Amino acid sequence: MDDYPKHWMGKIRKDCCLRYSSLIFLIIINILSITALIIGFLFRGQCSIEQNISIYLVVAGFIFTIYYTFLLVLMLMMMLTDKEDVDSLPKRKRCALAISISIICLFMTAWLIVGCIWIFPIKLTVQSIDSSFSTYCQSTLYDYAFFYCCFLIIICFIHYLYFFCMMRRM
């Protein structure tokens, strides 16, 4: 026991805490993305002010669910394998994985921008009382789309900030 540095237990606790908090975070994002998919599907055609909002939620919910489920599985695999096994993956496979993740992230960012263009400008004119008006949008659909867009902006910011911090370390 005296052979180990005094800080080794703290390092193990910090690593476990980081892993499990990341795991919980990915599960929460998946739940919110599946909810977006369901709400977009259930309320399609119920937003006359901007018909594309339900399409946005369906596509964003689907893409983000696939992406974050993939990351969740990848993280679980890395938690269950030795570091040496991960390091022994061929460089080509690691590059292909990194390129695939980057392409998906670029698409998700572009789709988020499109969603913001559809959702944010109508915030002051949208109403959910009278469906006969051209400014109508079902309240659950619009409110969730607005929340989901704001949430994704924050997540993307954190995601890119983490990515750039990791790149600076290399």
TrEMBL record:
Keyword Transmembrane: yes
Transmembrane domains' residue ranges: 20-43, 55-76, 97-121, 141-164
Organism: Adineta steineri
Domain of life: Eukaryota
Name by which UniProt lists this protein: Uncharacterized protein
Keywords of this entry: Membrane, Transmembrane, Transmembrane helix
InterPro entries for the chain: TMEM272
